[in-house]
Amino acid sequence: MVVNCFKHHEMYIRLQGLQIALATVLPNAEHRVCSRHVYGIWKKKFGDLDYKPFFWKVAYSYTKGEYKLHMDELLLYDREAYDALLAAEPEHWCQAFFSKTGRSANCNNLSESFNRTIKKARELPFINMLETIRRQAMMRISRRFKRADKYIMQFPQRIAYVLEMNRKNSKDFQIMLVYLATMQFVPSMTFVENQKSMLLTTIKLQCG
Questions:
Q1: Cα separation, 121 vs 139, whole angstroms
Q2: Per residue in 73-101, pLDDT tens?
Q3: 131 or 31, which is more confident?
Q4: Measured distance CA(136)–CA(117) in Å, rounded
Q5: Which of 69, 77, 34 has the alpha carbon at shortest distance from 52?
Q6: Please, is 118 exposed, middle or buried when counting C-beta atoms within 10 Å of its C-beta (0-12, 13-18, 19+)?
Q7: SS3 content of the chain, % helix, strand, coil (to 5)
Q8: CB burial of residue 97 (10 Å; 0-12, 13-18, 19+)
Q9: How many other CB atoms sit within 10 Å of the CB of residue 176?
Q10: What phi and psi, each to the nearest 5 degrees, are found at residue 115?
């Protein structure tokens, strides 16, 4: 148990040193934290599934107003959870505080997925590690190329599924033409007799 505590303490010291180094070498760099890791720590005390939506609503808030709205909802639900989440410094992992120049999202899943694939290679000597990673990347590119070459559909499978669902849902819509006073085209939507009726185009005809 003492060894584990020492390891965590040593890791904490290293992270502090890394933050100081980044602030010195890259003073203008924007510092962000993976929201999934923040949630992993936060849910140790607030692990009930009812808390999960509150966290991710805050994390994916696009504006400060939306962020405040979701934080107020959490405050009404549980003051202690609100204080704990506020202490986690949301400005580093909530989208509402991200600059417009940044391109990364809340979670660094892409980096973690790559790190997982090279986990065994990282145990090798430096040159062997690089060669192993290079081979893994080439094999992956080759597998993806063969898979894409055999694919005969116009769109990827996931996109095709979304389009097909939209096509099925669209059968409940009706096209309506409304004749008004002038010649203009105005897209809009209306509902008639409790049925989904989409007004794709409003045609206004010149009278007289």
A1: 15
A2: 999 999 999 999 999 889 888 988 888 76
A3: 131
A4: 8
A5: 77
A6: middle
A7: 60, 5, 35
A8: middle
A9: 15
A10: -60, -35
Q: Where are the beta strands (DSSP E) in 137-184?
A: 179-180
| Predicted pLDDT at 54 | 94
Q: Coil, strand, or helix at residue 196?
A: strand
Phi–psi pair at 186, nearest 5 degrees: -130, 115
Dmax (CA) for the chain in angstroms is 92
Q: What is the mean pLDDT of the chain?
A: 75
Closest CA to 73 of 91, 90, 55: 55
Predicted pLDDT at 182: 47
One-letter amino acid at 58 equals V
Q: What is the pLDDT of residues 153-204, one digit of tens each?
A: 777 778 888 888 888 887 777 666 555 444 444 444 444 444 444 444 443 4
Is the predicted pLDDT of residue 34 greater than 50, yes or no? Answer: yes
Cβ contact 98:30 at 8 Å: yes
